[in-house]
Amino acid sequence: MSQPAKRVVLVSRPVGEPKASDFRIEEYAPPTPGEGQVLLRTIWLSLDPYMRGRMSDGPSYATPVPIGGVMEGGTVSEVIASNNPGFDKGDIVLSRAGWQTHALLDGKALTKIDPKLGPVSTAVGVLGMPGMTAYTGLLDIGKPQAGETVVVAAASGAVGSAVGQIARIKGARAVGIAGGKDKCDYVKKELGFDDCLDHRDPNLAAKLKDACPKGIDVYFENVGGAVFEAVFPLLNPFARVPVCGLIAHYNDTEAKAPKWASSLMRAVLTKRLTIRGFIVSDFAARHADFLRDMSQWVREGKVRHREFVTEGLENAPAAFMGLLKGANFGKQLVRIGPDRA
Amino acid sequence: MSQPAKRVVLVSRPVGEPKASDFRIEEYAPPTPGEGQVLLRTIWLSLDPYMRGRMSDGPSYATPVPIGGVMEGGTVSEVIASNNPGFDKGDIVLSRAGWQTHALLDGKALTKIDPKLGPVSTAVGVLGMPGMTAYTGLLDIGKPQAGETVVVAAASGAVGSAVGQIARIKGARAVGIAGGKDKCDYVKKELGFDDCLDHRDPNLAAKLKDACPKGIDVYFENVGGAVFEAVFPLLNPFARVPVCGLIAHYNDTEAKAPKWASSLMRAVLTKRLTIRGFIVSDFAARHADFLRDMSQWVREGKVRHREFVTEGLENAPAAFMGLLKGANFGKQLVRIGPDRA
């Protein structure tokens, strides 16, 4: 190996926003695969908001990254050495190799990617976890009906962009919320949402009301904060609120009771709302359906997607900090190595 | 008719707790049935917490009682005159005749009750709306599995008592919360709950934790307030929270953000909770299932119930005000007239 292997480890649990000093880049000697093991070279690292949760040790659905441990993450990687009969040198695989240039894994957690299906990066994007989060949360919890109104925030992002486009495919009105005019234009013109509003607009609540003249039937919750505050009064009876993320709150340090909180349970009752948290692995049984439908929609141009690429593992911490602030425009990827070594 | 007819009308929309002056008792001449109409004499009036909502004109799933209008309510009544070929004098019917001694109705909203099936009062209790609220909310939203833990407040009441007993039938652990030692003893000894705690106990949270060593999988929410605050930290991943009432908040006059509110949505996400509001009519399609199962359980002694009877229409307002404070012990009924005139 011409270059030393590198990895990003967690140095300290962030209080509020993560900062550069919470991460450390280490060099290490790439390991040699033992019996049944596979050595991977990372091509693409996916950065996703859920990773903020893994940096904290509060109660969650997943155990946190230990201090001194490699940051977790999904990757697209190439097999560069294999002692596992199931994998050959040169295979491209989806794995959870984490924020590092190389990883030693047994074969259990690897899924081969067929590069003929399209750019391999889509395996961590529109055809991967973010796409499936959108698909299952919207269809299995949100259940949009033709003529209903679906609202999603972070609408130019990996999950939000798919949510709105799938809502349109199902005959619903799709209203996105995104940060800034460029993103809103993209969401409306390229992704075909019926409308898109800027969450920085001081009149967000009033504009959202105008954009949803028949109220909101599905609110796909992936940000929380001010967006939820604007959405909340517009929810229709029997509205469904799949909750897969609360980016606006990930860096909260103290419990600040939002204005709507006291009336939330009352609204649940009087409007007969369904609010349900989920993560994509809850719907593992739907993976084949997802791949079939989503790959077809991507081929037909009904679901478009956009990648936002940061170059080099060293820049992953900065890219992640930016992701939490909405600095990305499309699916945030880090290019760790070339497609072919 | 020997006595003048009487009715209770709403005089003013209560601010906070309803008071006697929000109601007025009026005498009126009982009407004569026209073509297709039926004149009813009320036997039993059911009092239920939802009626507090009907006294306010805030957004809800139902329109409020108009000022000067008769208070709404379910009744068991006798047909005393009929111009409708579907009903004979002497028939006992379930209706929404409201807080009055007599009512003129067309036949559409009447259901005949077979007095041979048991005391006719059960048609507004364990075999009526409260029983079906418990049955559908617990089974269709809560979905308790054998070995799981179900918690319900107002456990000696019409809904709560059925919730815990059905949970036990399904093999779940049932923990009730009720007001005072007598009610808790009844819930444990007569209804067979695994445990019951007094909501006035200052150590409720700690005791609830002890009573639910494996956490809480289903919280049937019918009161809100301090009970929800104690329940909230104990909810297990994938817990279900059917919400059919928030008695503790019905008299709230200002939005007071409860302590747990700011962390509610975060818990929805990290614990993948399902919170769903409902009213019993959402599950109308389940009525036949409910009647079949519940009447069998009542016959077999697996579901027991208790009635708390107040005598006379004049006392209905005081009984209702007491109901909102938990003064009743069992299903709150008002005896308006004898079983047979």
Automatic annotation (TrEMBL), chains A, B:
<keyword id="KW-0560">Oxidoreductase</keyword>
<dbReference type="InterPro" id="IPR013149">
    <property type="entry name" value="ADH-like_C"/>
</dbReference>
<dbReference type="InterPro" id="IPR045010">
    <property type="entry name" value="MDR_fam"/>
</dbReference>
<protein>
    <recommendedName>
        <fullName>Enoyl reductase (ER) domain-containing protein</fullName>
    </recommendedName>
</protein>
<dbReference type="Pfam" id="PF16884">
    <property type="entry name" value="ADH_N_2"/>
</dbReference>
<dbReference type="Pfam" id="PF00107">
    <property type="entry name" value="ADH_zinc_N"/>
</dbReference>
<feature type="domain" description="Enoyl reductase (ER)">
    <location>
        <begin position="19"/>
        <end position="334"/>
    </location>
</feature>
<dbReference type="InterPro" id="IPR011032">
    <property type="entry name" value="GroES-like_sf"/>
</dbReference>
<dbReference type="InterPro" id="IPR036291">
    <property type="entry name" value="NAD(P)-bd_dom_sf"/>
</dbReference>
<dbReference type="InterPro" id="IPR041694">
    <property type="entry name" value="ADH_N_2"/>
</dbReference>
<dbReference type="InterPro" id="IPR020843">
    <property type="entry name" value="ER"/>
</dbReference>
<dbReference type="GO" id="GO:0016628">
    <property type="term" value="F:oxidoreductase activity, acting on the CH-CH group of donors, NAD or NADP as acceptor"/>
</dbReference>
